[in-house]
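Re: the pair you flagged

First of the two:
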Amino acid sequence: MHPYKTPVSAFAALLVSLAVVGSTRPAQASSSFPLKLQASLQAQFNQSFCVPQCTACHETSTGGFGTLNKFGLNLKAYGMLTPVVYNDNALKTYFEAVAAAKGTGAMPNGDSDGDGVSDADELKAGDSPAIAGPRGQSLLCPDLAYGCGARIAAAPPPPVDRTALLFAGLAGLFGLTLFRRRARARRPAR
């Protein structure tokens, strides 16, 4: 057996492990969603709208997988959102489904935040359909504060991708097992 085979195999397994960890990225919402939501709002209500922030459907301004708010969850429940595609007729289909569900108790008035004002009325007024009451007013397109009171902060660290860690661990374990088997095979028999 060639003396460099075992270290090269272990090195290759380590490189594969690092490649698995380095190649995965956290799921993110599409940057085109806000523009498509704006177009859907304009088509639905026949009036002009600002470009909504990611917080129209997400809990955070960065969006991403697992951060949908109440309104985003309702859109998803009616099949309007997927991780990759935003249905251009999302709001129209959503409001048609809400109208069809009236009286069934599935979603009375299409009121995601449960404040007694329908999602349609809140969206038309520029309010957030995910934040109840006066706190949600004018939050579909919130003004961002700049100036003396504002500060720049570092971005939060990206979330841990557990699947990548699992595969990296498995690849590392596979490499270690291969390394140990070859080391045992090189030992002289007793």
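Second of the two:
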Amino acid sequence: MLSIDKTIDVDTGELRVSSERAVLRSIALGSCVAFVVYEPDGKIGGLAHIMLPGKSPSNNNNTKYAEDAIDALLNSVEKLGAKIENLEISIVGGANILQEGDLPDLITKSIIDCLEKLDLEVSGMRVGGVERRSVFLNTATGNVYYVEGDNPNKILLTKITKV
């Protein structure tokens, strides 16, 4: 079993990066979407907890918004030495837990549209449905795990799936 130096929580509208052996985690994602990146050569990871689609209307780089968070996270991992073209990208969350409106779908679409503009592909995705999720990135291995609802088991995200 690999030892991990620390656990780093990523709260709503925040992003965190690490090149150390750590677990980046975002707990209780409802309609929000976690944007997770990992660069295997440098073992550099990052996670953004995105709560709104598009770009901040005030142009102040507010990481609550998808485009701002993606730009900030990519810049942050690049500063640590990550090669953007080598990133493994995962998206987790976007559940319609209140079962009303389309905010979760708008956030997910905004992220995917932004990635298409940047010519980046998603490696793994678990979005939609009605149950909240939590996500975990192990920067020592690059493995992305998620928990759905009250399930005590972590599930390894290995391929693109959509509920």
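The longest strand covers residues 22-29.

-B.
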